[in-house]
TrEMBL record:
GO BP annotations listed: chemotaxis; signal transduction
Source species of the chain: Pseudomonas edaphica
Domain of life: Bacteria
Domain Methyl-accepting transducer: 1-93
PROSITE patterns xref list: CHEMOTAXIS_TRANSDUC_2
Bilayer topology term: Multi-pass membrane protein
UniProt protein name: Chemotaxis protein
Lineage of the species this protein comes from: Bacteria, Pseudomonadati, Pseudomonadota, Gammaproteobacteria, Pseudomonadales
Length: 129
C-alpha cells in the first residue's frame, strides 16, 4: 500500500507540475495575445492616422491643381492683354508716322504758300502807280 501511495503521490506531483506548466503557458499565451492586441490597436490607429493624412494631402493637391489652373488662366489673359497692348503701340507708331508725314507736308505747303505770297507781293508791287 505504501508503494502505491508513494506512486500516487509522485504521479500527483507530476500532474501538479504539468498543471503549473500549463497555467504558466496559458498566462504567457494570454500576455502574448494581449500584447498582440495592443500592437494591433496601435497599428490600426496609425493606419487610420495615415489614411487621414493621405486624405488631407489629396485635398491639398486638389487645391494646388486649382491654383495652377487659375495661374495658367491669368497668364493666358496677361498674354492676350500684352498682345493687345503691342497691337495698340504698333497702331500708335503708325499714326505717329502718318502725323509726321502730314506735318512735313503741311510745312512744305506752308513754305510753298510763303513763296507764293512773296511772289504775289512782288507782282503786285510791279503794278503800283
Amino acid at each position: 500500500v505504501r508503494a502505491l501511495a508513494s506512486r500516487t503521490q509522485t504521479s500527483t506531483q507530476e500532474i501538479q507540475g504539468m498543471i503549473d506548466r500549463l497555467q504558466k503557458g496559458t498566462v504567457a499565451a494570454v500576455d502574448a495575445m494581449r500584447r498582440s492586441s495592443d500592437a494591433g490597436d496601435g497599428t490600426s490607429a496609425q493606419a487610420n492616422q495615415a489614411g487621414a493624412s493621405l486624405d488631407t494631402m489629396a485635398q491639398l493637391i486638389g487645391t494646388i491643381n486649382s491654383m495652377n489652373a487659375q495661374i495658367a488662366s491669368a497668364a493666358e489673359e496677361q498674354t492676350a492683354v500684352a498682345e493687345e497692348i503691342n497691337r495698340s503701340v504698333h497702331q500708335i507708331a503708325v499714326a505717329v508716322d502718318s502725323v509726321a508725314d502730314e506735318t512735313q507736308l503741311g510745312a512744305q505747303t506752308s513754305r510753298s504758300l510763303a513763296d507764293l505770297g512773296q511772289r504775289l507781293g512782288q507782282l503786285v508791287g510791279q503794278f503800283r502807280i
